[in-house]
Amino acid sequence: GFSREEVIGRTPAIMNSGRHDRAFFEVFWKTILSGRVYKGVFINRKKSREVFYNEITVTPIKDPSGAITHFVYSGRDITERERAELEREKADKAVLRAKEEWERTFNTIPDLIAILDKEHRVLRVNQAMAERLGRTPDQCASPATTASARLRCGGKDDRPKPGTVKGDSAERSNASSIRCRIWPNIGLPVASQIAA
Description:
single chain, 3-stranded antiparallel beta sheet, alpha+beta
């Protein structure tokens, strides 16, 4: 960093990184020149020109007449905290993008899909399933309603047992969390995911 000799008599401009616009500094100077304490984060630079985040407090000092005579500045380096926050924001945006892509795929895929919980209650269905049943996705899904009641158009509940794929001639074991079932009252294969 800067030595004592390098900073005495100089303004804080020697640490200016160029990251702040004029409006930012106008708010800063307006605050302290009005006699109020300023608290905020400056993006400054070290003598090596390395950028760092500086959380500062600037307090105006007044004489007995109320005139400001000088300012007391204190600050601390919060670069690591800011970097961690930026990484979290990037991660959150990546998760949001992935969720949006999944939602688009879920609602545009032509297969009939229902997501069920462990009790075989419908949590949600995709658009193709809802259209096949002549309902909205919200009308098809209800945590308190069994899959057979929601996904059939009428008749008895003759869904296959969990863990099996029911075909024309035999039932085959399927140990994965994704099940493909024939729902007789719909007459089409339904891919259903069992939620953890």
